[in-house]
Amino acid sequence: MTKALQDAFKLASRLPDDDQDALAAAILEEVALEEHWEATLAGSSGALGELADEALADHRRGRSEPLDPKKL
Known about the structure:
It is built from three helices and no strands. It has helices spanning about 5-10, 15-45, 45-60.
């Protein structure tokens, strides 16, 4: 565990029990979401590569347009 996380837990331990439980639930949810996201990305690398290849091929054929951030 990093020092920053240790410091955060030390400070959080001063909170009322209900607040500590809410913080713990938020951390657990965030970790679960991160693990799910990582697993999803790992399983989709082939599909992402195919989409990237298609986009590059379209660009080389002149079928793409410059992105204008002001129009987003």
